[in-house]
Amino acid sequence: MESNPIYQGFELDAETALALLEWQVEMGADEPILEDATDRFELTASKRVEPAPLQMQVQPAAPPPVRDDSAHLDALIAEAEALAASADTLEALAAVQEAYDGIELKKGARNFCFADGNPKARLLLLGEAPGDEEDRQGRPFVGRAGQLLDKMFDAIGLSRSAVDAEKSLYITNVLTWRPPGNRDPSPDEIALSMPFVRRHIELAAPDLIVLMGNIPCQAALGRRGILRLRGTWTEAFGRPALPMTHPAYLLRNPPAKREAWADLLSLSARLSD
Ligand code: URA
């Protein structure tokens, strides 16, 4: 292929281009800015579209400001409580939660991401929020972190596709709608989700819960600091709960897999008690 004069002096080999792309994804730039990809080789120097400044592309969106209208927030939480209480089955809960308009995140998300796995499982895993792939598929933990999660639990004989309650896993998140740019959910967004999370756990009635990462610890225990909390059994939603480091953290910090393995063994021992 003839080299385009625009790119003279900027040629990248495939490996470097891939590394740059991975770095951008790591920084949170996990979706294209434009609807359609631009074929820059087609563009002449005069028609060339200047990309947005790099900082604009990689900065995750800031959380929305905390509402100062606390009466409005209280009313929305009360509405969420009433809807959650009205659901007698997981299917009914999914329907009322999906229809609820109190969480602004709903407007920007592609799909409602309720749960995955076997609702009869003895173990329920509570994660943070859907990411890009989960938002696309409408299922929790199906991206890279989810693949690692499957391998981790597979190592102690648990899988989300198992029919046997003893060998299966049920997975949900604190948030069912993706926060833009994978930012942390705001305290208001967590508060609006919690009536549904509590009812979800009541209806699934697991024996044990894993709190996967900081957000579920913040939501269930009112505490963050997963590196201190992990590995110590506690109680959440009236059930024994084990905080564990999030698989996305383990992908960035492979040495931390050693402690995660110890936590999995502790979980496995508790399940066979
Ligand atoms: N991280 C989470 O906590 N949940 C998901 O569903 C995906 C990534």
TrEMBL record:
Highest taxon of the lineage:
Bacteria
Q: Domain Uracil-DNA glycosylase-like spans what residues?
A: 114-265
Gene3D superfamilies annotated for this entry? Uracil-DNA glycosylase-like domain
Q: Does the keyword Signal apply?
A: no
Which keywords describe this protein according to UniProt?
Answer: 4Fe-4S, DNA damage, DNA repair, Hydrolase, Iron, Iron-sulfur, Metal-binding
Q: Which reaction does it catalyse?
A: Hydrolyzes single-stranded DNA or mismatched double-stranded DNA and polynucleotides, releasing free uracil
Give any single GO term for biological process: DNA repair
Give this protein's Gene Ontology molecular function annotations: 4 iron, 4 sulfur cluster binding; metal ion binding; uracil DNA N-glycosylase activity
What is the similarity comment for this entry?
Belongs to the uracil-DNA glycosylase (UDG) superfamily. Type 4 (UDGa) family.
NCBIfam families on file: UDG_fam4
What is the protein's given name?
Answer: Type-4 uracil-DNA glycosylase
